[in-house]
UniProtKB/TrEMBL annotation:
Cell compartments where the protein resides: Cytoplasm
Positions contributing to Mg(2+) binding: 250
The protein's name: Phenylalanine--tRNA ligase alpha subunit
Gene name in the database record: pheS
Entry EC no(s): 6.1.1.20
Swiss-Prot/TrEMBL cofactor(s): Mg(2+)
Keywords: Aminoacyl-tRNA synthetase, ATP-binding, Cytoplasm, Ligase, Magnesium, Metal-binding, Nucleotide-binding, Protein biosynthesis
Top enzyme class: ligase
UniProt subunit comment: Tetramer of two alpha and two beta subunits.
Organism: Candidatus Portnoybacteria bacterium RIFCSPHIGHO2_01_FULL_40_12b
The keyword Ribonucleoprotein is annotated on this UniProt entry: no
Reactions catalysed according to its record: tRNA(Phe) + L-phenylalanine + ATP = L-phenylalanyl-tRNA(Phe) + AMP + diphosphate + H(+)
An individual GO BP term: phenylalanyl-tRNA aminoacylation
Protein family according to the UniProt entry: Belongs to the class-II aminoacyl-tRNA synthetase family. Phe-tRNA synthetase alpha subunit type 1 subfamily.
Amino acid sequence: MLNELKQKALKEIQGAKDLKTLEELYRQFLGRKGELTAVLRSLKDLPEKERREKGKLANQIKLELENIFNQKKSEIRNLKSEVQDGWIDITAPGILPALGHFHPITKIRQQAEEIFQSMGFTVAEGPEAETEYYNFDALNTPPEHPARDMTDTFWLKNKKLLLRTHTSPVQIRYMESHNPPLRIIAPGRVFRHEATDASHDVQFYQIEGLMIDKDVSAAHFRGILQEFFKRFFGPEIKIRLRPSYFPFVEPGFEIDIKRGKGDWLELMGAGMVHPNVLKAVKYNPNLWQGFAFGMGLDRLAMIKYKIDDIRLFYSGDLRFLKQF
Ligand code: FA5
Protein backbone atom coordinates (compact mmCIF):
# COMPACT_ATOMS: atom_id res chain seq x y z
CA MET A 1 0.00 0.00 0.00
CA LEU A 2 2.81 2.37 0.91
CA ASN A 3 4.64 1.54 -2.28
CA GLU A 4 1.54 2.25 -4.31
CA LEU A 5 1.27 5.60 -2.61
CA LYS A 6 4.91 6.28 -3.42
CA GLN A 7 4.48 5.38 -7.10
CA LYS A 8 1.41 7.56 -7.38
CA ALA A 9 3.17 10.51 -5.73
CA LEU A 10 6.29 10.13 -7.87
CA LYS A 11 4.27 10.04 -11.06
CA GLU A 12 2.29 13.12 -10.18
CA ILE A 13 5.31 15.10 -8.99
CA GLN A 14 7.19 14.33 -12.16
CA GLY A 15 4.20 15.49 -14.19
CA ALA A 16 3.90 18.85 -12.38
CA LYS A 17 4.54 21.76 -14.74
CA ASP A 18 4.41 24.70 -12.37
CA LEU A 19 5.08 25.62 -8.78
CA LYS A 20 1.44 25.95 -7.91
CA THR A 21 0.64 22.36 -8.88
CA LEU A 22 3.75 21.22 -7.07
CA GLU A 23 2.64 22.96 -3.89
CA GLU A 24 -0.76 21.31 -4.12
CA LEU A 25 0.84 17.90 -4.55
CA TYR A 26 3.05 18.51 -1.55
CA ARG A 27 -0.02 19.30 0.47
CA GLN A 28 -1.80 16.24 -0.87
CA PHE A 29 0.96 13.84 0.14
CA LEU A 30 3.13 15.41 2.77
CA GLY A 31 1.01 18.24 4.20
CA ARG A 32 -0.58 18.17 7.65
CA LYS A 33 -3.58 16.35 6.21
CA GLY A 34 -1.57 14.62 3.51
CA GLU A 35 -1.90 10.96 2.53
CA LEU A 36 1.55 9.93 3.71
CA THR A 37 1.21 11.98 6.88
CA ALA A 38 -2.01 10.08 7.62
CA VAL A 39 -0.13 6.79 7.28
CA LEU A 40 2.60 8.02 9.60
CA ARG A 41 0.00 9.13 12.15
CA SER A 42 -1.80 5.81 12.07
CA LEU A 43 1.41 3.94 12.95
CA LYS A 44 0.89 4.43 16.66
CA ASP A 45 -2.16 2.15 16.60
CA LEU A 46 -0.23 -0.80 15.09
CA PRO A 47 1.38 -3.64 16.97
CA GLU A 48 5.03 -2.88 17.67
CA LYS A 49 6.65 -5.14 15.01
CA GLU A 50 4.46 -3.98 12.26
CA ARG A 51 4.83 -0.39 13.44
CA ARG A 52 8.61 -0.60 13.23
CA GLU A 53 8.63 -2.08 9.72
CA LYS A 54 5.96 0.13 8.31
CA GLY A 55 7.38 3.17 10.12
CA LYS A 56 10.80 2.63 8.61
CA LEU A 57 9.40 2.32 5.11
CA ALA A 58 7.06 5.29 5.51
CA ASN A 59 9.88 7.54 6.73
CA GLN A 60 12.09 6.42 3.88
CA ILE A 61 9.37 7.24 1.39
CA LYS A 62 8.80 10.58 3.08
CA LEU A 63 12.48 11.49 2.68
CA GLU A 64 12.53 10.29 -0.89
CA LEU A 65 9.46 12.29 -1.80
CA GLU A 66 10.81 15.39 -0.11
CA ASN A 67 13.98 15.12 -2.16
CA ILE A 68 12.02 14.69 -5.34
CA PHE A 69 9.85 17.68 -4.46
CA ASN A 70 12.92 19.86 -3.93
CA GLN A 71 14.51 18.66 -7.12
CA LYS A 72 11.38 19.35 -9.11
CA LYS A 73 11.00 22.75 -7.52
CA SER A 74 14.42 23.96 -8.63
CA GLU A 75 13.84 22.43 -12.02
CA ILE A 76 10.70 24.48 -12.48
CA ARG A 77 12.34 27.61 -11.09
CA ASN A 78 15.13 27.19 -13.58
CA LEU A 79 12.62 27.56 -16.34
CA LYS A 80 13.28 31.24 -15.72
CA SER A 81 10.19 33.26 -16.32
CA GLU A 82 6.81 32.99 -14.77
CA VAL A 83 5.35 32.91 -18.25
CA GLN A 84 6.95 29.49 -18.68
CA ASP A 85 5.47 28.40 -15.38
CA GLY A 86 2.16 28.90 -17.08
CA TRP A 87 1.27 31.29 -14.30
CA ILE A 88 1.29 35.07 -14.55
CA ASP A 89 0.23 37.33 -11.73
CA ILE A 90 -1.79 39.79 -13.76
CA THR A 91 -2.43 41.93 -10.69
CA ALA A 92 1.30 42.61 -10.10
CA PRO A 93 2.33 46.16 -11.08
CA GLY A 94 4.21 46.14 -14.36
CA ILE A 95 7.62 47.65 -14.97
CA LEU A 96 7.18 50.39 -17.55
CA PRO A 97 10.05 51.11 -19.90
CA ALA A 98 11.22 54.71 -19.51
CA LEU A 99 9.71 56.69 -22.37
CA GLY A 100 11.11 59.96 -23.64
CA HIS A 101 8.92 62.93 -24.41
CA PHE A 102 9.06 66.30 -26.10
CA HIS A 103 10.82 69.24 -24.51
CA PRO A 104 8.33 71.85 -23.20
CA ILE A 105 9.57 74.38 -25.77
CA THR A 106 8.91 71.88 -28.57
CA LYS A 107 5.39 71.28 -27.27
CA ILE A 108 4.68 75.01 -27.20
CA ARG A 109 6.09 75.38 -30.71
CA GLN A 110 3.85 72.59 -32.02
CA GLN A 111 0.75 74.06 -30.37
CA ALA A 112 1.49 77.54 -31.75
CA GLU A 113 2.18 76.14 -35.23
CA GLU A 114 -1.12 74.30 -35.23
CA ILE A 115 -3.12 77.41 -34.38
CA PHE A 116 -1.39 79.55 -37.00
CA GLN A 117 -1.69 76.81 -39.62
CA SER A 118 -5.43 76.67 -39.00
CA MET A 119 -5.49 80.40 -39.81
CA GLY A 120 -3.80 79.83 -43.17
CA PHE A 121 -0.14 80.39 -42.24
CA THR A 122 2.50 78.03 -43.58
CA VAL A 123 5.68 77.17 -41.67
CA ALA A 124 8.98 78.44 -43.10
CA GLU A 125 12.56 77.97 -41.95
CA GLY A 126 15.92 79.64 -42.28
CA PRO A 127 19.52 79.00 -41.19
CA GLU A 128 20.80 79.71 -37.67
CA ALA A 129 24.17 80.85 -39.05
CA GLU A 130 23.07 83.84 -41.10
CA THR A 131 24.67 86.56 -43.20
CA GLU A 132 24.81 90.17 -42.15
CA TYR A 133 22.67 90.99 -45.17
CA TYR A 134 19.66 88.92 -44.09
CA ASN A 135 19.99 89.57 -40.37
CA PHE A 136 20.42 93.33 -40.73
CA ASP A 137 20.83 95.09 -44.11
CA ALA A 138 17.75 93.76 -45.87
CA LEU A 139 15.79 94.52 -42.72
CA ASN A 140 16.47 98.23 -43.17
CA THR A 141 19.37 98.09 -40.72
CA PRO A 142 22.55 99.15 -42.59
CA PRO A 143 25.97 98.94 -40.83
CA GLU A 144 25.95 102.47 -39.45
CA HIS A 145 22.38 102.11 -38.17
CA PRO A 146 22.16 102.62 -34.39
CA ALA A 147 19.65 99.74 -34.13
CA ARG A 148 22.52 97.30 -34.75
CA ASP A 149 23.48 97.99 -31.17
CA MET A 150 20.04 97.00 -29.92
CA THR A 151 21.21 93.42 -29.86
CA ASP A 152 24.69 92.10 -29.19
CA THR A 153 25.65 89.75 -31.94
CA PHE A 154 27.71 86.56 -31.86
CA TRP A 155 29.97 86.77 -34.92
CA LEU A 156 31.44 83.60 -36.32
CA LYS A 157 35.24 83.51 -36.68
CA ASN A 158 35.37 84.27 -40.40
CA LYS A 159 33.24 87.41 -39.79
CA LYS A 160 31.18 86.53 -42.83
CA LEU A 161 28.48 84.83 -40.83
CA LEU A 162 26.79 85.53 -37.53
CA LEU A 163 24.37 83.63 -35.29
CA ARG A 164 21.02 85.15 -36.15
CA THR A 165 19.82 87.51 -33.43
CA HIS A 166 16.17 87.10 -34.43
CA THR A 167 13.99 85.08 -36.83
CA SER A 168 13.24 88.17 -38.97
CA PRO A 169 15.80 87.19 -41.67
CA VAL A 170 13.44 84.34 -42.62
CA GLN A 171 10.97 87.04 -43.75
CA ILE A 172 13.49 88.22 -46.34
CA ARG A 173 14.50 84.74 -47.47
CA TYR A 174 10.86 83.72 -47.92
CA MET A 175 9.80 86.88 -49.76
CA GLU A 176 12.79 86.58 -52.09
CA SER A 177 11.61 83.18 -53.23
CA HIS A 178 7.82 83.60 -53.14
CA ASN A 179 5.34 86.00 -54.63
CA PRO A 180 2.73 87.80 -52.57
CA PRO A 181 0.12 87.35 -51.13
CA LEU A 182 1.56 85.19 -48.36
CA ARG A 183 1.18 84.20 -44.75
CA ILE A 184 4.02 82.48 -42.92
CA ILE A 185 5.33 81.73 -39.49
CA ALA A 186 8.99 80.87 -38.91
CA PRO A 187 9.88 79.25 -35.60
CA GLY A 188 13.55 78.91 -34.74
CA ARG A 189 16.49 79.38 -32.44
CA VAL A 190 18.17 82.75 -32.04
CA PHE A 191 21.27 83.92 -30.18
CA ARG A 192 22.27 87.08 -28.35
CA HIS A 193 25.46 87.98 -26.57
CA GLU A 194 23.86 89.42 -23.46
CA ALA A 195 23.70 88.93 -19.70
CA THR A 196 21.17 86.33 -18.62
CA ASP A 197 18.44 86.79 -16.03
CA ALA A 198 15.09 85.19 -15.22
CA SER A 199 13.56 86.30 -18.53
CA HIS A 200 16.66 86.54 -20.78
CA ASP A 201 18.93 83.82 -22.05
CA VAL A 202 21.78 83.86 -24.60
CA GLN A 203 19.88 81.47 -26.84
CA PHE A 204 16.15 81.24 -27.06
CA TYR A 205 13.36 80.63 -29.56
CA GLN A 206 11.22 82.99 -31.54
CA ILE A 207 8.29 82.57 -33.87
CA GLU A 208 8.34 85.04 -36.67
CA GLY A 209 5.08 85.90 -38.37
CA LEU A 210 4.55 87.64 -41.70
CA MET A 211 1.43 88.39 -43.68
CA ILE A 212 1.56 90.28 -46.98
CA ASP A 213 -1.50 91.15 -49.03
CA LYS A 214 -3.14 94.00 -50.85
CA ASP A 215 -4.89 95.68 -48.00
CA VAL A 216 -3.65 94.34 -44.71
CA SER A 217 -3.94 96.71 -41.79
CA ALA A 218 -2.92 96.85 -38.13
CA ALA A 219 -6.51 95.86 -37.35
CA HIS A 220 -5.95 92.52 -39.12
CA PHE A 221 -2.86 92.04 -37.03
CA ARG A 222 -4.74 92.69 -33.82
CA GLY A 223 -7.49 90.30 -34.86
CA ILE A 224 -5.09 87.46 -35.66
CA LEU A 225 -3.22 88.08 -32.42
CA GLN A 226 -6.36 88.04 -30.30
CA GLU A 227 -7.56 84.83 -31.93
CA PHE A 228 -4.18 83.21 -31.37
CA PHE A 229 -4.02 84.11 -27.67
CA LYS A 230 -7.61 83.15 -27.05
CA ARG A 231 -6.95 79.70 -28.50
CA PHE A 232 -3.53 79.25 -26.95
CA PHE A 233 -4.30 80.42 -23.41
CA GLY A 234 -8.08 80.59 -23.07
CA PRO A 235 -10.11 83.61 -22.02
CA GLU A 236 -8.09 84.68 -18.95
CA ILE A 237 -5.31 86.28 -21.01
CA LYS A 238 -4.85 90.07 -21.30
CA ILE A 239 -2.95 91.77 -24.14
CA ARG A 240 -1.33 95.22 -24.11
CA LEU A 241 0.08 96.98 -27.20
CA ARG A 242 2.75 99.67 -26.72
CA PRO A 243 4.28 101.82 -29.44
CA SER A 244 7.88 100.78 -30.07
CA TYR A 245 10.64 100.98 -32.64
CA PHE A 246 12.19 98.41 -34.97
CA PRO A 247 13.89 99.60 -38.18
CA PHE A 248 12.01 97.05 -40.32
CA VAL A 249 8.48 98.17 -39.37
CA GLU A 250 6.53 101.38 -39.32
CA PRO A 251 4.66 101.85 -37.05
CA GLY A 252 6.13 99.40 -34.54
CA PHE A 253 4.65 97.88 -31.40
CA GLU A 254 5.59 95.79 -28.47
CA ILE A 255 3.06 93.41 -27.02
CA ASP A 256 2.88 92.38 -23.39
CA ILE A 257 0.65 89.68 -22.01
CA LYS A 258 -0.60 88.90 -18.57
CA ARG A 259 -2.33 85.78 -17.34
CA GLY A 260 -4.79 85.98 -14.45
CA LYS A 261 -3.18 87.85 -11.57
CA GLY A 262 0.39 87.46 -12.94
CA ASP A 263 2.74 90.26 -14.02
CA TRP A 264 2.90 91.75 -17.50
CA LEU A 265 5.59 90.06 -19.59
CA GLU A 266 6.95 91.45 -22.86
CA LEU A 267 6.21 88.80 -25.46
CA MET A 268 6.79 90.20 -28.90
CA GLY A 269 7.86 92.96 -31.21
CA ALA A 270 5.68 93.68 -34.22
CA GLY A 271 4.55 96.25 -36.74
CA MET A 272 3.59 97.07 -40.31
CA VAL A 273 6.33 95.97 -42.70
CA HIS A 274 8.54 98.94 -43.66
CA PRO A 275 8.43 99.92 -47.37
CA ASN A 276 12.24 99.63 -47.52
CA VAL A 277 11.96 95.94 -46.59
CA LEU A 278 9.45 95.36 -49.38
CA LYS A 279 11.76 97.16 -51.80
CA ALA A 280 14.69 94.97 -50.72
CA VAL A 281 12.78 91.90 -51.93
CA LYS A 282 11.47 93.66 -55.03
CA TYR A 283 7.86 93.88 -53.94
CA ASN A 284 6.03 97.04 -54.96
CA PRO A 285 5.24 98.87 -51.68
CA ASN A 286 2.44 100.79 -53.38
CA LEU A 287 0.68 97.52 -54.11
CA TRP A 288 1.61 95.28 -51.22
CA GLN A 289 1.64 95.78 -47.50
CA GLY A 290 1.57 93.63 -44.40
CA PHE A 291 2.42 93.05 -40.81
CA ALA A 292 5.22 91.12 -39.12
CA PHE A 293 5.88 89.98 -35.60
CA GLY A 294 8.57 88.20 -33.61
CA MET A 295 7.33 86.35 -30.58
CA GLY A 296 9.45 84.92 -27.75
CA LEU A 297 8.59 81.23 -27.63
CA ASP A 298 10.26 80.72 -24.26
CA ARG A 299 8.25 83.57 -22.81
CA LEU A 300 5.10 81.95 -24.19
CA ALA A 301 6.08 78.72 -22.44
CA MET A 302 6.87 80.57 -19.20
CA ILE A 303 3.36 81.98 -19.08
CA LYS A 304 1.62 78.82 -20.19
CA TYR A 305 3.41 76.60 -17.66
CA LYS A 306 3.88 79.29 -14.97
CA ILE A 307 7.69 79.04 -15.00
CA ASP A 308 9.45 81.97 -13.41
CA ASP A 309 12.98 81.42 -14.74
CA ILE A 310 13.70 80.96 -18.45
CA ARG A 311 17.08 79.33 -17.73
CA LEU A 312 15.36 76.21 -16.39
CA PHE A 313 14.41 75.22 -19.96
CA TYR A 314 18.05 74.73 -20.94
CA SER A 315 19.36 73.50 -17.60
CA GLY A 316 19.08 69.86 -18.65
CA ASP A 317 17.63 69.19 -15.19
CA LEU A 318 15.50 66.06 -15.57
CA ARG A 319 13.55 66.81 -12.39
CA PHE A 320 12.30 69.91 -14.18
CA LEU A 321 11.86 68.39 -17.64
CA LYS A 322 10.02 65.29 -16.45
CA GLN A 323 7.07 67.43 -15.35
CA PHE A 324 5.98 68.14 -18.91
C1 FA5 B 1 12.91 91.24 -32.27
O1 FA5 B 1 13.69 90.33 -32.19
C2 FA5 B 1 12.25 91.60 -33.57
N1 FA5 B 1 12.86 90.85 -34.63
C3 FA5 B 1 10.77 91.31 -33.47
C4 FA5 B 1 9.99 91.85 -34.61
C5 FA5 B 1 9.69 91.03 -35.68
C6 FA5 B 1 9.55 93.16 -34.61
C7 FA5 B 1 8.95 91.52 -36.75
C8 FA5 B 1 8.83 93.66 -35.67
C9 FA5 B 1 8.51 92.84 -36.74
P1 FA5 B 1 12.95 91.79 -29.70
O2 FA5 B 1 14.37 91.95 -29.57
O3 FA5 B 1 12.08 92.69 -28.88
O4 FA5 B 1 12.45 91.92 -31.20
O5 FA5 B 1 12.58 90.28 -29.35
C10 FA5 B 1 11.30 89.74 -29.58
C11 FA5 B 1 10.87 88.86 -28.42
O6 FA5 B 1 11.84 87.86 -28.18
C12 FA5 B 1 10.79 89.61 -27.09
O7 FA5 B 1 9.54 90.26 -26.99
C13 FA5 B 1 10.92 88.49 -26.11
O8 FA5 B 1 9.71 87.79 -25.94
C14 FA5 B 1 11.92 87.59 -26.78
N2 FA5 B 1 13.27 87.83 -26.29
C15 FA5 B 1 14.10 88.85 -26.58
N3 FA5 B 1 15.27 88.72 -25.96
C16 FA5 B 1 15.21 87.58 -25.26
C17 FA5 B 1 16.13 86.86 -24.42
N4 FA5 B 1 17.37 87.27 -24.20
N5 FA5 B 1 15.71 85.70 -23.86
C18 FA5 B 1 14.45 85.25 -24.11
N6 FA5 B 1 13.56 85.86 -24.88
C19 FA5 B 1 13.93 87.02 -25.46
